[in-house]
């Protein structure tokens, strides 16, 4: 039987440093792991003793790609600790900027990180000569997502105006109207993206696992609601520690996270599986056109779910702008009265559920902080997927190079955000 | 021949690397002027024959330091991208905590030994010669274009070395101090267009100090507005902990 050893150091087209390590002996997978090797940054410690108003700008710097997610969840945790309920206008603006980040992040992943695999090239750069229209379209969509973030939050990377209990600046109606026009125009680009994705073959592999996400009530959830598992249980956000557990693995600077089973999945596919009924009709139509039906157990379909969500966020973003335009957008007082206690924030970052858990003293200085990152939650699931996928590839007589390549595509499908998880990727085959 | 460019990330949030990809309107033009040979976040190719290296992040492990020195040995021009690379940035805040305790807090007592390899957070210039700095958290993407353009033309990039107040006044913002908030505008390097004051917040000095900061007069402004130096220092540490460390030692 076959022996095989694969090691891929610094897997490319990922946000951060990670490696893949695989060992097959006599045809049996004895080791398959995705290790994160990013340098740890110890945010939980840096936050200690800092004033509440620093929590969001500091944790935004966990990740340049999902800075809006970290900012939003941080504000939620602080507001929960102080018993603050943000206004309707604040919630609308937060939902809008969140959609902007989701579009930016999903478009970056689908076009810049995944599409090169499916088109058989090493990056988006050669596509500029072979598929210039596609590249231009990708850049237009990404810019739209970024500009939504800039109009609402003041900047593309690391928002400025998002604050505890409100905003330090609100967008002008004219800026929102201009965005709305571009979002309407983006429908054509998104439709073209759907046609493109139809032509690209996704690896056929399924492995059922547990899917964990926020639970929508009336809306497809990104920043509100309790949690729900595909295994049929729900729990309140403040009770998350009763249901998931962080563990430290010596080879990996990102903590692994488990619920009831050995692994679970978070992110676009988990959200789709748990909340697909709440998607905008246009997004549902895209899912149908691309053959995505709930429950879907093929991790390579994460990219499809991301495109479905991109369409949803664009449509829901238009609806939010319409609501904002129909009312007075005004500067509201963002008064904060501190009090001692613990607060929990939970949002759906582009890559999945993100928890921030803070304890403040009476003057609003941080005593204890913990952040649980989507990629940390997905790592164990990636390991289990690799473990399931390798025998399939071996049985199909695939060689070392192709196995290594497919495993990298798998890891990339999860869109792991390694900067986030450490608070990285290499493939290692061991013969 | 087009210059060969590489983009590397050490310990960072990769937000500055992302700023390059966020240059949507200029990206294709830029790629026409240079040959991108190594950029892990965006491409598979990893060539080592680059002329110009952009580095995102700071060196916080022996591995980072080794990689940094290797890059310096190859690159004709080395550019630090963003506050982490230029002045240590936000992560330098951890230098003010006992490191062994820090590792234990995050990874637990039993596992701490596996993660104790971290070094104090240092900017790139602590280890190697840096040719140009791109300031800010994140770096300003148009300043990045300015640096690339200057390198292509063989001239020095035009990076401001005057305080942010100049830019902020020109933008006709209401003074942040008059709005009752703390601001580092009087001593911070301009170049961001006073983006934080324009969005209702004080400057947090993410671009670091101008080369000759009038710190005493800044303290006076703080006092006039009833703000304490302690408040100021805590805030200043957010992006300039390394400066604080090195200036404490030299008594400045």
Indicate the radius of gyration of chain B in whole angstroms: 19 Å
Task: Tell me the overall shape of chain B.
Answer: globular
The largest inter-chain interface, given as chain pair and residues per side, is: A-B, 59 and 62 residues
Oligomer: heterodimer
| Terminal-residue CA separation of chain B | 47 Å
SSE topology string of chain B: EHHEEHEHHEHHHHH
Largest sheet of chain A: 4 strands, mixed
- Helical segment count of chain B: 10
What order do the helices and strands of chain A follow? EEEHHHHHHEEHEEEEEEHHHEEEHHHE
Your description of this structure?
The complex is a heterodimer of chains A (431) and B (252). Chain A has 431 residues and is α+β, with helices and mostly antiparallel strands. Chain A contains 13 helices and 15 strands. Chain A has helices at residues 43-46, 52-60, 67-82, 88-118, 127-130, 132-153, 173-199, 268-275, 281-289, 302-325, 374-395, 400-413, 418-421, and strands at 4-8, 18-25, 28-36, 162-163, 166-167, 210-214, 227-229, 234-235, 245-247, 256-258, 264-265, 341-349, 352-360, 366-372, 426-430. Chain A is globular and about 65 Å long. With 252 residues, chain B is α/β, with parallel strands linked by helices. Chain B has ten helices and five strands; from the N terminus they run βααββαβααβααααα. The longest helix of chain B is centred in the last third of the chain and has 22 residues, at 229-250. The N and C termini of chain B lie far apart (47 Å). In chain B, 47% of the residues are buried. At the A-B interface, helix 1, helix 2, helix 4 and helix 6 of A face helix 1, helix 2, helix 5, helix 8 and helix 10 of B.
